[in-house]
Amino acid sequence: MPTDVFVEPGDLVIVEGPTFLGVVTRFVYAGARVITIPVDELGMDVDALEVTLSDLKKQGIRPRFIYTITTFHNPTGTTMPLFRRQKLVALAAEYGVLVVEDDAYSVFALPKRNCAPLATLDQDGWVLYVSTFSKIIAPGIRLGWACGDPAIIERLAMFKSEGTVGPRQTR
Ligand SMILES: Cc1ncc(COP(=O)(O)O)c(C=O)c1O
């Protein structure tokens, strides 16, 4: 789980508002300060994100990461179109902020409706793609996979080898 590896108390994490409650709970539990970017009918409002990133930069703050559910967003059901995905990846590179792309649901999209994951638009390793078997095998399985910069995957693998394979409710 990226939270256990990346979030230190006091870190700033950007999420969509609203978003998957389960993950916000984890971020808060890990001591993160969470700020939200509104979601409209096209998913995260990336123009609002740009303003926020610019404001934070003026204050000398670099968020730890941006958490986004790009396809079949939980809870709004929206899917971010390509032009927004491209802008989100460009902003990540410009501001040097990791994007954690939670793609739990795109497996259920019709092929023609499916949109390129952010990870496929990312040239510079600013996207960590994560998904889960919970929606395709069984909810209790609590297993998933991640794809991203090798250094990040190595940190996740270290956590995995030290942690348990069962559900983790606490750090
Ligand atoms: C967007 C999203 N990601 C992840 C999960 C859960 O994944 P896991 O069971 O692997 O923790 C859910 C479950 O509701 C979800 O909505």
CATH superfamily placement: Type I PLP-dependent aspartate aminotransferase-like (Major domain)
Radius of gyration: 15 Å
Largest sheet, spatial ordering of strands = 3-2-1-4-5-6-7
Ligands bound, unique: pyridoxal-5'-phosphate
Tally of individual helices: 6
* Total DSSP E strands: 7
* Count of discrete structural domains: 1
Order of SSEs: HEHEEHEHEHEEH
- Helix content bin: 25-40%
Distance from first to last alpha carbon: 10 Å
Quick overview:
This protein is an alpha/beta fold and 171 residues long. The protein contains 6 helices and 7 strands, in the order αβαββαβαβαββα. The N and C termini lie close together (10 Å).
Keywords summarizing the entry:
globular; single chain; alpha/beta; disordered C terminus; seven-stranded mixed β-sheet; Aspartate Aminotransferase, domain 2; 6 helices; binds pyridoxal-5'-phosphate; 171 residues; 34% helix
What does this structure look like?
- The protein contains six helices and seven strands.
- With 171 residues, the protein is of the alpha/beta class.
- Strands 3-2-1-4-5-6-7 form a seven-stranded mixed β-sheet, with helices on both faces.
- The radius of gyration is 15 Å and the shape is globular.
- The termini are close together.
- The model is unreliable at 167-171 (pLDDT under 50).
- It binds pyridoxal-5'-phosphate.
Task: Please specify the SSE layout and strand pairing.
Layout: H1 2-6, E1 12-17, H2 21-29, E2 33-40, E3 43-44, H3 46-58, E4 65-68, H4 82-95, E5 98-102, H5 118-121, E6 127-132, E7 144-147, H6 150-162
Parallel strand pairs: 1-2, 1-4, 4-5, 5-6
Antiparallel strand pairs: 2-3, 6-7
The site of pyridoxal-5'-phosphate has 9 residues, from loops.
